[in-house]
């Protein structure tokens, strides 16, 4: 077994001990409300999204209702999440597409999801994993940074990181691991907070490391 695989196996075991439960961080009631919440979470914290969505979903929690809300009103409600003009238009437009093309349902495919305005591969992966139980590995900034600090990828870009992680972690663990890594990153591994030499996981994984890891964005 190669070293990278040994590291990956150790990570699976430690994260399972640390985070046996993985509640979904974004509050939602169905695939549509999760899709909207994930879209809102771009450049915004999950905590803030969870503060905003109750008001938005009280106004409209289905595509049928959302298309009747003026874009300017959606924009006002979601303003604290940032990028409000773009996100509000995307929410309105994608709701119309769901009605026109999918009978008001959220499509259960990467292709269908990624065609929707405001929905990229990461958002589609979260919805596929968390709403439909399809194995996916959405790479956000925490995962991108940790995968580099743990020596699992050279971290050229998020696509490469996703590919590298999918190779070393078993497919049936992707969805849970994705959340466990995010939880660990939030708790221990902040953007500038650590040089990669401090806590249990890095020191166990990189015992020969003598200098801090420089992570790529
Ligand atoms: S040692 Fe630092 S970089 Fe490594 S996992 Fe811990 S907090 Fe993150």
Can you describe what's shown?
The protein is mainly α. It contains twelve helices and no strands. α1 packs across α11 (174-188), α5 (71-78) crosses α6 (84-102) and α9 packs across α10 (158-168). The longest helix has 19 residues, at 84-102. The protein is elongated and about 60 Å long. The model has no long low-confidence stretch (mean pLDDT 92). It binds iron/sulfur cluster (SF4). Iron/sulfur cluster (SF4) binds next to α12. Iron/sulfur cluster binds at residues 149, 188-189, 194, 196, 198-199, 201-202.
Question: What structural keywords apply?
Answer:
single chain, 217 residues, mainly alpha, Endonuclease Iii, domain 2, Endonuclease III, domain 1, 2 domains, 12 helices, binds iron/sulfur cluster, Nth
Report the uncertain regions. Answer: none
Small molecules bound in the structure, each named once: iron/sulfur cluster
Domain count: the total is 2
Write down how many β-strands occur, each being a DSSP E stretch of 2 or more residues. 0
Shape: elongated
The CATH architecture of the largest domain is: Orthogonal Bundle
Do you know the CATH topology of the largest domain?
Endonuclease III, domain 1
Strand content: under 5%
Number of helices: 12
SS-derived structural category: mainly alpha
Can you identify the CATH superfamily of the largest domain?
A: Hypothetical protein, domain 2
The major β-sheet equals: none
Rg over CA atoms, rounded to whole Å, is 19 Å
Protein name: Endonuclease III
Cofactor: [4Fe-4S] cluster
EC number: 4.2.99.18
Keywords: 4Fe-4S, DNA damage, DNA repair, DNA-binding, Endonuclease, Glycosidase, Hydrolase, Iron, Iron-sulfur, Lyase, Metal-binding, Nuclease
